[in-house]
């Protein structure tokens, strides 16, 4: 690709992102919001709930991992139905904090262009440097693939 330095990801000049708060990334088709045991404890503590109660209401097992529950319409269980704001924003999982800088969104420029179509904050706003993007990069255990992007 034009302008790419040898050994650098295609986005080495950085990418722009500023969340508009539209809530689209927290809704839509079926998906997973992975939560680690530590994140489960943080969320339960934030909501002042016993772990058992939090797990029963907000978490579903998927294989040997855990995901937050979705509502029937595809909304994350913690997306406020009216305000479309995250109800656990201060303790949201790493998967949510790192959006849109996921390995799956950054494999190719076409992947990023798709993200920019579905997320109005992507491609807009302040520039995130390559170093900032790599420090945020998330991807279902694929983070170590960063050097191959
Ligand atoms: S889709 Fe993009 S702009 Fe909308 S809430 Fe999610 S990150 Fe923000």
Salient structural properties:
149 residues; alpha+beta; disordered C terminus; binds iron/sulfur cluster; globular
Describe this structure in words.
With 149 residues, the chain is α+β, with helices and mostly antiparallel strands. The chain has one domain. It has helices at residues 37-46, 51-58, 94-98, 103-106, 109-118, 130-136, and strands spanning 15-17, 59-62, 65-68, 122-128. The chain contains 6 helices and 4 strands; from the N terminus they run βααββαααβα. The protein has a two-stranded antiparallel sheet with strand order 1-4. It has a two-stranded antiparallel ribbon with strand order 2-3. Helix 1 packs across helix 2. Bound molecules: iron/sulfur cluster. Residues 19-25, 99, 119-121 line the site of iron/sulfur cluster (SF4).
Strand proportion, as a percent range, falls in: 5-15%
What is the overall silhouette? Answer: globular
For the biggest β-sheet, the strand order reads 1-4
Rg from Cα: 17 Å
Main sheet: strands, sense, barrel:
2 strands, antiparallel
Strand elements, count: 4
Determine the number of helices (DSSP H or I, runs of at least 4 residues). 6
Count of discrete domains: 1
Which small compounds were modeled alongside the protein? iron/sulfur cluster
Helix content, binned percent: 25-40%
Mean pLDDT: 90
């Amino acid at each position: 690709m034009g302008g790419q330095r040898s050994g650098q990801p295609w986005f080495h000049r950085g990418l722009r992102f500023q969340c508009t708060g539209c809530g689209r990334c927290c809704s839509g088709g079926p998906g997973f919001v992975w939560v680690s045991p530590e994140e489960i404890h943080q969320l339960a503590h934030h909501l002042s709930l016993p772990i058992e109660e939090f797990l029963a209401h907000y978490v579903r097992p998927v294989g040997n991992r855990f995901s937050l529950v979705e509502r029937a319409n595809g909304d994350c269980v913690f997306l406020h139905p009216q305000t479309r704001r995250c109800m656990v924003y201060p303790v949201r999982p790493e998967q949510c904090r790192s959006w849109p800088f996921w390995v799956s969104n950054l494999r190719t420029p076409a992947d990023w262009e798709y993200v920019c179509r579905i997320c109005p904050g992507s491609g807009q706003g302040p520039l995130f440097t390559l170093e900032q993007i790599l420090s945020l990069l998330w991807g279902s255990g694929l983070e170590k693939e960063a050097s191959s992007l």
